[in-house]
Amino acid sequence: MGGSASKLPKELLSEYQELTFLTKQEISLAYKRFSELQGNENGPYSIRVSMEKILTLPELKSNPFRKRICHVFSTSEHKDGSLSFEDFLDLLSAFSDSATLEIKSHYAFRIFDFDDDGTLDSRDLEKLVNCLTGETEDTRLTAEEMRQLITNFIQDCVVKFILAVSGPDVSPSLEYLTNVASEM
Amino acid sequence: MTSKVSFHSELTSDIESPVDEDLVHDSFSQLIQEQGHDLYDVIEMTPYEPQDNDDDEVVCLERYHTDDDALATDNLIGGCWSSDTLKVLSGMPSRTIGRSRGAIISQYYNRTMQLRRRRQSQPSVHTHSHTHSARPSIRGYRVETDGEEENKRERLVVNLQNLSANDRARMLRAMPLGLREKQELRMLVLNQSEHSPSQSQIPCCSQIKYHLLTVVRVCGSLLSSLKLWQTSLKCVSGRFGTGVLSYFLFLRTLLFLNVFLFLFTAVFLVAPQAAAPPDQSRNSNGSRRSSWGLEVLTGAGYFSDSLLYYGHYSQQTLGVCANSTGMSKSFSQSLRIHKSRGLLAIKAFSSWDHKVSKKSSVRLQRENIGTQLKELVSEVSRQEQKVPVLQRLFRIFIHSLAWIMCLGSSVACVLAVYYCSEYMHKDLRSRARSSSSSPLLKELSFLSLPLLVSTINLLLPGFFNALAWMEEFDSPSTLTYVSISRNLLLKVCVLGVLCYHWLGRVASDPQSLGLECWESFVGQELYRFLLMDFIFILFHTFIGEFLWRALKRKRKPVFDIARNVLELIYGQTLAWLGVMFSPLLPVVQIIKLLLLFYMKKMNCQASGKPWRASQMSSVFITLLCFPSFLGSAVCVTYTMWTIPPSTGCGPFRGLSTMFESGKLWVRQVVQLNPHLWWLEAAHTYLVENPLFLFLCAAIFLIVIYFHSQVMDGQRKIIDLLQEQIQNEGEDKKFLIMRLQEIHEKRRVRGARQGSSFS
Known about the structure:
The structure holds two protein chains of two kinds. Chain A is mainly alpha-helical. Chain A has helices at 10-19, 24-38, 51-54, 58-61, 66-73, 85-95, 101-112, 122-133, 143-156, 158-165, 175-183. Chain A has eleven helices and no strands. In chain A, α7 crosses α11 (175-183). Chain B has a domain at 228-275 and 296-320 and 339-654. Chain B is built from 26 helices and two strands. Chain B has a two-stranded antiparallel sheet. The interface between A and B is large, with 81 and 79 residues. Chain A: InterPro entries: CIBP, EF-hand-dom_pair, EF_Hand_1_Ca_BS, EF_hand_dom. Chain A: GO terms for molecular function: calcium ion binding; magnesium ion binding.
C-alpha cells in the first residue's frame, strides 16, 4: 500500500458516524477500500471514482443490480454512476444491518425502477426478472412465461397496482417491501 | 410504525351521509371541472389545433391481458393516455418524492413537527392543524418552487434544533438524502444553535440519557468486536447465503448456551469439589474411549450435599427464566404475518441475497430463482385450470401413502429401539448375576444401543427425503415444514423410548443390574450417545461427501439445513437430559460444537432449497424450546420428584427423593440461624406446594397469550391498512380516468372546433 495510509480526521469520522448507520470501524474500513480503489492518497473524499472501478469490488461484481445501485447512489452531475466517498458511505449505510426499513425500501424502490420514472411498470418488472434469472438461455424465462408472470403479478393484488402508480410513499405500510428490506 | 392516517378532507363537509352517493360523485365532478380550468392555465393546451392521434404523444402501455376479470385494471394499464394527462401524472407528489429533495425535506419537516409535539406533549393549535388536515400523502407535497424549498428547509433546521440530540441524530440518519446534504443540514443546525445557546433547551435528563446511550453504544461495539467467529460467518454468508448462515448462527447460540450452563455448574460444583475432595472407589475399567468418560463421570458424581442441590435447582429455574424470555420473543417473531398471496412479488423483489459474492454461488442463486419463478408461473396457471377430481384424489392418495410409510417406518424404528433396550436390560441382568463375563464384551454391549439409534438418525431422514421427492407439494416451504415435522416426530419418539428405558427400567430397579449408582450409569449412557452421534455426523459429512463426489463429480452436496439443525437440537436435548446426571456433559457438547463448526464450514455448499432465513431461525429456536428443552426439563423434574436416588453414591443418598434434600438443607440453615425461620415456612408453603408452581406456569402462559394477542391485533391493523390502501387505489384510479376523460373531451372539442373553422 505504500507510505502512511492517510486516515480520516477524527471530527469527520464522528460526523459520518452520526449521520449514517455505520460504526466508526466500518467507516475506516470503507475509507481504506475506497482509497485503494482510487489509487490515490490525497483525501479521496473529494474525488469521484468511476463506475467501472466500483464494479470491481468483489461484493458488487456478481450482483445483478450493480449498475442500478451505482446510478442510484451517485450524485454526480454527469449521471455516469461515479461515486464520491460520501456516496459510497451512503451505499454501505443503506445496505447495513442497522438501517431502518424505510431507508431500505426507499432505495430498493429506486434500484428496481430501471427507467427512473418513479413507477414500477411492466418494463421495469421485465428487466427485473431478467436480471434475476441471468443471461444464459436455459435459465431465462421465455417470452410467454414472462408475459404470464407480469400479468399475474399485476393481477395478483390491487396493492401491487398501487405500487405501480404511486411510489415509495405507501411503501412503509406494505409488508412486501419490508420483506425486501429484511432480506437485503 | 402506525402513523395515523386520517382521511378528513375538506370535501366531506358537504356530504350528508354516505347514502347520498350521487352527491358524492357530483361534488367530485365539479371539482374536476374546476380543476380542468386551472389546469388550462398551468399546462399549455392547444385545443384549437386539430390533433390526430399520431401527433399527440399518446403513450400506450402494452396490453398484457385480455381477460374480462381484470378489465378494470386493464383499462388503466392498457389505456392510451394523452400527453397532458401524463404531464399531470408525472407531477404527482408520490412520483416525485423519491427524486425531489424538496419533497423529502417537507416530509421530514412534518415529521419533526410531530416529534416535537410528542416530546413536548403540548398539542398546540398550530400543530394540530398539521396532523388533522388532509392526508399526509397530499399535505405539504405540492409542486414546489425554489423559494418554498428554502423556506421549508429553514423551518426544518429550526425543528431539528429544538429536538434533543438523540432524536436529531436519529432523524438525520433516517432521511433518505445524500450524505453531503445531511452534512449541510447538520452544519446549519449546529451553527444556529451556537449563535443562540439559550434556545437549546435540552433538559439535563435527556443529556444524561444521551451520555448513557453513547456508553451503551460503545459497549455494544466492543462486544461486537469480541464476537466469536465474526469473520468466518461473514465469509460463509458471502459464499453460501443467509440460509446456511442461519444454521451457523444457531450453532453459535447453542455454544453460548452450553458455555453459560457449564459456567453455572462449574461455579456450584467445582468449588465444593475443591473444598471437600471427593470420595474414592472409582470404577476401574478398561481404557477404551467410551469408558474413559466413565472415570470422569463417576469422579464427578461425588459432592457435598447442600450446594449441589441448590445448584441444580436454581440452575433449572434460571435456565427456565432465560429460555422463557427467549421463547416469548421468538414466539412474537414466529407469529409474524406471512400471507400466502403476493408470493410472486415477494419472489421477484426479495429473493436476491445481496450478501452472496462468490461467482458459483451467484450462478446457483440465479438458477434457483429462475426455476422458482418458472415453477410459480406454471403453478399459478395450473391453479387457474380446474384440477380434475381424479388428479386431486390421486394426489391425496400419494400424500397419505407417504405419510403412512413415514409413520410406519418411525414406529418400526421405535419398536426396534424398545426391544433392543429390553434385550440389553435382560442381558445386563443375567451378566450381573453370572459375573463371569469379560468387561470388554460388556463395554461393547453398552455401545449397541447408541449405535442403533445413531444409525436410525442417519438413514431415516434420507428415506423421508426420498418419499417427499415422489410427492407433489403446493410450495417449497410446505415441503420443508413437512420434512421437519416428520424428522422431529421420529426423534421425539426415540428419545421418549430411551427415557422410559432409563427412568422406568434402570432407575426403578438398579440392584438387579448390579449397579451401585444408577445415576452415573445413565450419565454414562448419555455420554456414549452424544459421542456416537458426533462420530456418525463426522462419518456422514466426510464419507458421504466422498461418495457423492465419486458419483456426481460436479459439485459438493447441497447443505440440507433442516436436517442439520434437527441434529443440533437432538444433540442439545441429550446434553440437557444428561446435565443432571453428569455435570460435565456441557463441556463435551461445547467441544463437539466447536469441532462441528469448522467441519461444516469446510464442507459447505449453498442450500438448494429456497430459504426464508428470518422465518426459519425463529422456527429453530421454537423447536429448541418446545420439544427439546421442555421435554428434558420435564424428565429431570420427574426424576427429582419421584425416583428414589441410589443409596450408594451421589449427594442425595439415603433420601426418598432428591427433592427432599431441599427440605433438609432448609432445615439445616434454620437450625444454624433461627432468625431465618421464615425461610422454612416459605419453603414449605411455596416450593413444596404445587399450587405455587401451577401459578408460575399460569403466569408464564398468560405472558405468551398476551404476546399472541398483540400479534393478532397487529395483524388486524395490517389488514385494515391494506384495505385503506386498496380504497385509496380505487380513488386514484377513478380520478385518473376522469382526468383522462376531460382531456379527451377537450381534444375532441378542439378538433371539432378546428374542423368547423376550416
